[in-house]
């Protein structure tokens, strides 16, 4: 018969809350930076010159081929050896996750752009817009709406993936849970709570974006 | 071009607004335009007719340099057309209306009409929207300013698209099969707007399958087949006494004889 004892969690709630706040802060930062990176890479892959498209394709393909854990560990342990710059764990996690998630965002951006009918670009150009005006005023706003459902998956994936930064001792929620678990010897209780907390965090994000999308979808249909 | 070829043509004595000289356009191995020469004068309504794939729409897209040409040249107001990458300043002087409307779905009707002056000319928002509202009135959609394209019928969308093109105060309007994607009951409202534009003296090039429009509103008709001009003339001559067998063939395919 299992006996549950949640008291270690109650005693360490401040510590866990701090970890959760690091998770949320890191997630928000990575989502913003990887979105910026992903839009630039996605636009570059569709409209850029050939050499740029090839370089960006290589970046995206390599990021999709390598586990995020490897990217993270490489950034933390190998990058300092190669370049003589040591990154604090949080900065290393931010950089590695941005580069990794950014490649996925770029694919969504590219798909969104390419799904907009070619006639929309022609109509914008026919008015006398430059290509970059057409991209900003006509193509990207529509692509952004079409991108919302897959983008919601990326957002939830990003929040979850911050958990891997526990391996380089970033004091985020997963790391805090590990610490509490090993000190209290109550892994079942601790990780069950972690599971529930991650779920409660993610569920509204996915549902919320889905709701926004359904209200905006008609604006992206050309 | 000989005088005989221009017989009865209104405005033929004036310099052409657009001049096509031996224009060649290829898509890979397919020759879409095989040496097309034609001219459009100020105030003319030139209707391009002919079978699908004969090159009419391609010529229109080359006219505002949405497509590059491989041979010959196109002259607009005395200037040879630049390559597509450099054509933005020329395009803003020509309005274009598309078969599938191509309204911007994330913008209201008013914003669709105002976006050209706002983005391209840097017109202030209030001024651009005031002018846009006036144009919506002109195409009979004063009450639809706040509607999004998804809330409008095909005919209404196409009228907004015409207003959008007019907002740039173009010297020429290019119509690419403007009624081909419309429900039959909304074709008339679009053709009426076009007819009024023609009566106001707008120079228009119209690719169309609406033979009644070409006949009644067109001032010059150019018949295309397989990337070449088969014949051209005033509507009365082309429709009633076509000189070429291929023109007669085209007309005979139009009428249903089942």
Automatic annotation (TrEMBL), chain A:
Alphabetized Pfam families for the sequence: BPD_transp_1
Any one GO cellular component localisation term in the record: ATP-binding cassette (ABC) transporter complex
GO terms for biological process, alphabetical: amino acid transport
Membrane topology type: Multi-pass membrane protein
Lineage top rank: taxon: Bacteria
Transmembrane segments: 15-44, 65-85, 190-209
Keywords assigned by UniProt, alphabetized: Amino-acid transport, Cell membrane, Membrane, Transmembrane, Transmembrane helix, Transport
Keyword Thylakoid: no
Entry similarity comment: Belongs to the binding-protein-dependent transport system permease family. HisMQ subfamily.
Task performed by this protein: Part of the binding-protein-dependent transport system for glutamine; probably responsible for the translocation of the substrate across the membrane.
Record protein name field: Amino acid ABC transporter permease
Species whose genome carries this gene: Bosea caraganae
TrEMBL record, chain B:
Recorded superkingdom: Bacteria
Any Gene Ontology CC annotation: plasma membrane
Secretion signal, residue range per the UniProt entry: none
Gene3D superfamilies tied to this protein: P-loop containing nucleotide triphosphate hydrolases
Entry-linked InterPro entries: AAA+_ATPase (IPR003593), ABC_ATPase_HisP-typ (IPR030679), ABC_transporter-like_ATP-bd (IPR003439), ABC_transporter-like_CS (IPR017871), MetN_ABC_transporter-like (IPR050086), P-loop_NTPase (IPR027417)
GO MF terms held by the record: ABC-type amino acid transporter activity; ATP binding; ATP hydrolysis activity
Domain ABC transporter: 18-251
Compartmental location: Cell membrane
Pfam families: ABC_tran (PF00005)
Keywords: Amino-acid transport, ATP-binding, Cell membrane, Membrane, Nucleotide-binding, Transport
Membrane topology: Peripheral membrane protein
Family that this chain belongs to: Belongs to the ABC transporter superfamily.
The protein's name in its UniProt record: Amino acid ABC transporter ATP-binding protein
């Amino acid at each position: 018969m299992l006996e549950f004892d949640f008291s270690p969690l109650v005693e360490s709630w401040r510590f866990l809350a701090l970890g959760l706040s690091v998770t949320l802060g890191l997630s928000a930062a990575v989502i913003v930076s990887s979105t910026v990176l992903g839009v630039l890479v996605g636009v570059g892959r569709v409209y850029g010159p050939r050499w740029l498209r090839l370089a960006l394709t290589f970046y995206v393909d390599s990021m999709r081929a390598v586990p995020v854990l490897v990217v993270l560990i490489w950034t933390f342990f190998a990058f300092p050896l190669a370049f003589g710059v040591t990154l604090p764990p949080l900065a290393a996690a931010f950089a590695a996750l941005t580069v990794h998630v950014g490649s996925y965002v770029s694919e969504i951006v590219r798909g969104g752009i390419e799904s907009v009918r070619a006639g929309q670009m022609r109509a914008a150009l026919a008015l006398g817009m430059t290509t970059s005006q057409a991209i900003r005023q006509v193509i990207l706003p529509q692509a952004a709406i079409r991108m919302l459902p897959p983008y919601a998956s990326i957002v939830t994936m990003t929040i979850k993936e911050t958990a891997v930064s526990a391996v380089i001792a970033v004091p985020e929620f997963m790391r805090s849970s590990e610490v509490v678990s090993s000190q209290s010897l109550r892994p079942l209780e601790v990780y069950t709570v972690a599971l529930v907390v991650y779920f409660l965090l993610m569920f509204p994000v996915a549902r919320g974006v889905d709701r926004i999308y359904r209200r905006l979808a008609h604006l992206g249909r050309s | 071009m000989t005088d005989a070829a221009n017989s009865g043509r209104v405005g033929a004595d004036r310099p052409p607004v657009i001049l096509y000289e031996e224009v060649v356009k290829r898509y890979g191995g397919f020759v879409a335009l095989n040496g097309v020469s034609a001219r459009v004068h100020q105030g003319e309504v030139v209707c391009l007719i002919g079978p699908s794939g004969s090159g009419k729409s391609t010529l229109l897209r080359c006219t505002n340099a949405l497509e590059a040409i491989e041979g010959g040249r196109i002259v607009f107001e005395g200037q040879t057309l630049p390559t597509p990458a450099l054509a933005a300043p020329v395009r803003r002087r020509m309005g274009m209306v598309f078969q599938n409307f191509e309204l911007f779905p994330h913008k209201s009707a008013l914003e669709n009409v105002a976006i050209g002056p706002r983005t391209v000319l840097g017109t202030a928002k209030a001024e651009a929207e005031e002018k846009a509202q006036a144009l919506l009135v002109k195409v009979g959609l004063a009450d639809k300013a706040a509607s999004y394209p998804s809330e409008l019928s095909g005919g209404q969308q196409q009228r907004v698209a015409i207003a959008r093109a007019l907002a740039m105060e173009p010297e020429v309007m290019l119509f690419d099969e403007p009624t081909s994607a419309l429900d039959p009951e909304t074709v008339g409202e679009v053709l009426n707007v076009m007819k009024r534009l023609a009566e106001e003296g707008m120079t228009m090039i119209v690719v169309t399958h609406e033979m009644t429009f070409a006949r009644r509103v067109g001032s010059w008709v150019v018949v295309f087949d397989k990337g070449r001009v088969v014949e051209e003339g005033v509507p009365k001559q082309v429709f009633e006494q076509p000189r070429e067998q291929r023109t007669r063939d085209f007309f005979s395919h139009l009428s249903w004889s089942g």
